Structures are given as structure tokens and as C-alpha cells.
Amino acid sequence: MTKLSIFPPHRLQARLATLVIAFIGSLAAACGGLQLQPKPMAFYDLGIGARSSLAPALAPAQIEIATPPWLEASAMQYRLAWDDPLRRRAYAESRWVSPPPAMLGLALNRALRSEGAGGRCRLRVELDEFIQDFASPNESRVEIVLRAGLLPPRSDKAIAGHEFRAVEAAQAANAAGGVEAYRRASARLVGELADWIGALDREPGGGLNATGRCGG
Fold first, then answer.
1. Residue 100 sits in which domain range?
2. Are 129 and 115 in contact (CB under 8 A)?
3. pTM of the model
């Protein structure tokens, strides 16, 4: 007759504990072999841009950027037209290297400011929108909206003001596609601002640096 081997309770508990520890160890080794690492964060910028065609004599003496609080962070924000379109979302694995107003300010300063003797006007820019909108999972566009005002050196009463809006389609419906579209939109806005300042200088009644406009 075959005898059954019966473990005493304390030996059975010890054996079960050993098996559990070995099982947990094998799981840890398997996970370690998979090397499950979070994807590294991707950081983007708008580039430094190119010089505009604005005459050096009309270059703003100072460029001021104002923005609402929700655009003061480095999050790359977007909206989904089919899922709560009023909600602002942010990419989890992509960021701007700096808040959009700072990047746009750098592009404007490089494009519009003059290293030599420039104009006396101050350019104030209020950034109202900086967003990537998805019409569908495969289609998106970016939109930048700003209001610009040209001010005398010692007054906050604007000589002139104008709203600018740039909308550019993204070639890819993702963060990288949005960045490429943002760069085109920023370059377009720089050109339009330069054209606007030049047109103001050609208005009847004297140039921008004449007495009574930006000459005071």
C-alpha cells in the first residue's frame, strides 16, 4: 500500500511561502527583461525665425507681450471637435521649451527689432489664443490670435491697434505636426505685423517718428 506523505502544518506553510516568493521573483525578472520604460518627454520650440522686411527706422523701440494665465505654461494645448470641444487638453508626452508668449516674443524681437537706431514706438502684443484644433482624429489646424497696439514712448494711449489671426493646417494630426504649423503661423504673423507698421508710417499726416505720433 502506498503511503501518503502528509506535511505538518508548519512545514506546509513554509513550502507555500517559498513557492509564492519564487513566483513573485519570476514575475519581477520577466518585467525587468521587458524593460518597460516611459517614453521620454519631447520638447519643441518655434525656432528663432527670420528677419522681416520692416525698415530699421520703423523698428519698435520695445516689444511687450501680454497673455491670459492659461497660456503662461509650457503645455501644448489642443481641442477635440467631436468630444467636448470647449475643453482644453494637453499632450502628455510633448511640451514647449517655454510658454508660448516667451517664444513668440523672441521671434518678434528677432524679426522686428533693429540693432541700430530704430523707431521710438513701442509695440504691445496681447496674445489671446494659441491652440491646435482637431476636426477629426486625422485632421487638425493651429490658430494664433493676437491684438497689437503701437504706443508712443511715454504714453499707454495707442496710436493704432489691429487684431491678427493666423490659421495653418497641420500636415500630421499630432504634436509634431502642430509644431510645424505653429512655425508657419508665427512667420505669417511677423510678416503681417511688419506690413501693418509700414502702412501706418505711410499714412497721411507724417511718419510714425514724426512729432505727435511716436516722436513724443
1. 42-201
2. no
3. 0.80
